[in-house]
Amino acid sequence: MASQDLQGILVALITPFTDGGHTVDDERLEAHIQHMIKAGVHGLVPGGTTGEFTAMTVDERKHLLELCIKHADGKVPVVAGIGALSTKECIDLASHAAKAGATALMVVPPFYDPLNLPQLKDLIAEIHAASAPLPIMYYHIPSATGLPLSPPELASLSAVGVKYLKDTSGNAPAFMELLFGLHDRITAFNGWDSLTFYGLAAGAQGSVWGTTNLIPELSVRLWDALHVRRDLDEGRRLWGLIWPICKFLEEHHYPSAVKTGMELLGKGTGGLRKPFAVLSAGPREELRGLLEGAGLKTV
Fold first, then answer.
1. Residue 1 in this model has a pLDDT that exceeds 80
2. Given the residues 139, 164, 259, 267, the one annotated as active site
3. Confidence class for position 211, pLDDT limits 50, 70, 90
4. Is 166 a catalytic residue?
């Protein structure tokens, strides 16, 4: 897909599997993507945390991306999740994404042994060289990578091809510095669900948001209220419906909670790959109540 600026609600896609989790379920994936596009989301981000990339083989991840690009059909940008434990595998995924027609890359660094900043820059520079001219979104999730970066350090990644940032640090003051002090060097997207209102009201160019799998219409309405129409009162009203769901998802294993919500909405997901599983009865019913409280119908 031709290069374009990213903006708005980018859904961090689940990966639907066939029952039992054996393979990616193309029919379920296509139906879900079409629902997201019809609801008005502004982009798709497959192969991230919500998409269970750590439970998938490299070939499966490549196939998933190809399917997402096919089903998006140029209607919305597709940002390919790129994360692995070695430079070689990252470059393999990145070069494939460029050839497959992705709009951009979302790069998360190795998440077992933490890198230092010079090593991270070397990694991203090699990924960028293998996938140019695709822009890179750096996925800042220090709870998983063990690499917390300050706002100036994050902005310095622009020198090696990083244009965007998904900030999943949960550090609201640092996010403000990125939005107001460093916006000329890096474009920060909110990536911490329960800070979405905060980020969009402050002027973030968008959110990479897993909750959107469950509430695409509400997500887009929140964006329209805060970013397009500057209607803070309407944004607060909508956020009152959305925030309890975000809080719940953050309190549980995130992909499990999102897929549980999908099942409650009557959308087959194939469950999660072991050792993870959908939520048990108690939390499941709590989530049902939150979804219904937001005006959604459950099964």
1. no
2. 139
3. very high
4. yes
pLDDT per position as a tens digit, 169-189: 999 999 999 999 999 999 999
How far is C-alpha 188 from the chain's CA centre?
13
Q: Do residues 2 and 212 touch, judged by C-beta distance below 8 A?
A: no
Catalytic residue among 62, 121, 166, 259: 166
| Cα 52 to Cα 62: distance, rounded to the nearest angstrom | 13
141, 167, 254, 262 from 257: Cα distances, Å: 19, 21, 5, 9
| Greatest pairwise CA separation for the chain in angstroms | 50
User: Is 163 annotated in the active site?
Assistant: no
If DSSP codes are grouped into helix, strand and coil, which group holds residue 138? strand
Instruction: Compute the radius of gyration of the chain from its Cα atoms.
Output: 18
Q: Which two three-digit tokens encode residue 292?
A: 């219904």
Three-state secondary structure call for residue 45: strand
Distance CA 167, CA 215 (A): 21
> What single DSSP character describes residue 24?
B
